[in-house]
């Protein structure tokens, strides 16, 4: 990594935001909408985020979920690279056990060649789906093996990214292309720079590993809020300075939705919560419209889940969301807030990012 690696990782807060703000897009598909529409909305959100001073835009790998169209982060990021100029683009994340490390190194080396100096490689060790789908992805039913091997897979991936396997290693003559080998070969003029690696997690495992390796860490507060503070403390306590960072840097994913009207925010998050009810009970589907959620007959157990889930979704007017984000940042000490806006319609999600930008006085294009 170059000497300015930390500058790529650390963002700049704009306006009155306490820390840099970023976007996590699940490319959600609502009932009555298409994946094509969802992907077009992703481009619109990335362009808005770039124009308004959000630091980065990430997409997350999920599989076999009708309401989430982000099964191929590298493909989506290539598309976004062609429609943006400055904003950082990355994976939040690629699920490393689902892929051969060399394949990921090649994909993100290609992205780096497309958008030099603005690509992030965020890695997770979960499958991003259910066990049966994970088995189909990995062509094995020994799923624990992939998670247990994560540190070794990570080390191998970083070796491919840096093109620095030691002499005598079985992979010593294998190169991830595009990659550093093209810059060090005779006549090579390509930059040897490669994307910074982030570790993602929802528990303490990746927090400790990221700290030990001196890597930036992203925590999934949006679906594991009870573990946020302990995981961040573990990351900071275990942090060792590295060639990448001299001190810890942690962002958290936050579910937040701002609307022009508080009542509309409640309607939208109820629909998103119903989608989660169905996912958690083995019935994944498209994100329902608010009208469908309002008419749905929730069981007592489902209502309890909805109340618990929505307690961690910051929603309401722009001012209410700004206050909620400020309070969360103070409570966790997060260095960056990565906002995910889950709603049935792409227009609602786009408007939410615009309202939050306005609330913090982020720059306008």
What is the topological layout?
Layout: H1 5-9, E1 21-25, H2 35-52, E2 56-59, H3 73-81, E3 88-95, H4 101-114, E4 119-124, H5 131-138, H6 143-148, H7 150-162, H8 181-184, E5 197-201, H9 204-213, E6 217-219, H10 228-238, E7 250-258, H11 262-280, H12 290-295, H13 300-310, E8 314-316, H14 318-332, E9 336-340, H15 346-359
Parallel strand pairs: 1-2, 1-9, 2-3, 3-4, 4-5, 5-6, 6-7, 7-8, 7-9
What percent of residues adopt helix (DSSP H or I)? 40-55%
Question: Strand-residue fraction?
Answer: 5-15%
Cα-to-Cα separation, first versus last residue: 32 Å
Shape: globular
Strand order of the largest sheet: 1-2-3-4-5-6-7-9
- Distinct helical segment count: 15
How large, in whole angstroms, is the Cα Rg?
20 Å
Helix/strand class: alpha/beta
Question: Largest sheet, if any?
Answer: 8 strands, parallel, barrel
Overall pLDDT score: 93
Number of strands: 9
- List the uncertain runs: none
* Order of SSEs: HEHEHEHEHHHHEHEHEHHHEHEH
Task: Report on this structure.
- 45% of the residues lie in helices and 13% in strands.
- The chain is built from 15 helices and 9 strands.
- The chain has helices at 5-9, 35-52, 73-81, 101-114, 131-138, 143-148, 150-162, 181-184, 204-213, 228-238, 262-280, 290-295, 300-310, 318-332, 346-359, and strands at 21-25, 56-59, 88-95, 119-124, 197-201, 217-219, 250-258, 314-316, 336-340.
- The protein has an 8-stranded parallel β-barrel, surrounded by 8 helices.
- Helix 4 links the parallel strand 3 (88-95) and strand 4.
- Helix 9 runs parallel beside helix 10 (228-238).
- The longest helix has 19 residues, at 262-280.
- The two termini are 32 Å apart.
- The mean pLDDT is 93.
């Amino acid at each position: 990594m170059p000497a300015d690696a930390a500058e790529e990782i650390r963002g700049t807060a704009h306006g009155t935001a306490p820390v840099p703000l970023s976007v996590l897009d699940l490319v959600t598909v609502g009932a009555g909408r298409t994946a094509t529409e969802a992907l077009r909305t992703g481009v619109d959100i990335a362009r808005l985020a770039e124009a308004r001073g959000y630091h980065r835009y990430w997409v997350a790998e999920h599989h076999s979920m009708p309401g989430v169209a982000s099964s191929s982060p590298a493909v989506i990021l290539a598309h976004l690279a062609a429609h943006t100029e400055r904003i950082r683009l990355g994976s939040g994340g690629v699920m490393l056990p689902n892929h051969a490390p060399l394949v990921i190194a090649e994909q993100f080396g290609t992205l780096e060649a497309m958008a030099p100096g603005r690509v992030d490689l965020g890695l997770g060790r979960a499958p991003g789906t259910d066990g049966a789908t994970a088995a189909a992805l990995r062509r094995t039913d020994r799923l624990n093996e992939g998670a247990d091997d994560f540190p070794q897979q990570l080390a191998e991936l970083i070796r491919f990214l840096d093109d620095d396997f030691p002499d005598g290693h079985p992979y010593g003559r294998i190169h991830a292309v595009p990659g550093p080998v093209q810059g060090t070969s005779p006549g090579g003029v390509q930059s040897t720079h490669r994307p910074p690696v982030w570790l993602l997690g929802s528990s303490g495992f990746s927090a400790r590993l990221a700290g030990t390796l001196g890597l930036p860490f992203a925590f999934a507060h949006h679906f594991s809020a009870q573990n946020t503070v302990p995981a961040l403390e573990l990351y900071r306590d275990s942090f060792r300075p590295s060639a990448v960072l001299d001190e810890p840097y942690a962002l958290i994913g936050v579910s937040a939705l701002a609307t022009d009207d508080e009542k509309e925010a409640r309607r939208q998050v109820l629909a998103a919560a119903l989608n989660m009810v169905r996912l958690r009970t083995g019935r994944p589907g498209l994100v329902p419209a608010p009208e469908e959620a309002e008419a749905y007959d929730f069981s007592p157990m489902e209502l309890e889940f909805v109340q618990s889930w929505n307690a961690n979704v910051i929603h309401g007017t722009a001012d209410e969301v700004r206050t909620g984000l400020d309070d969360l940042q103070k409570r966790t000490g997060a260095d960056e807030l990565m906002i995910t806006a889950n709603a049935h319609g792409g227009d609602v999600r786009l408007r939410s990012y615009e309202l939050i930008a306005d609330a913090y006085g982020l720059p306008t294009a």
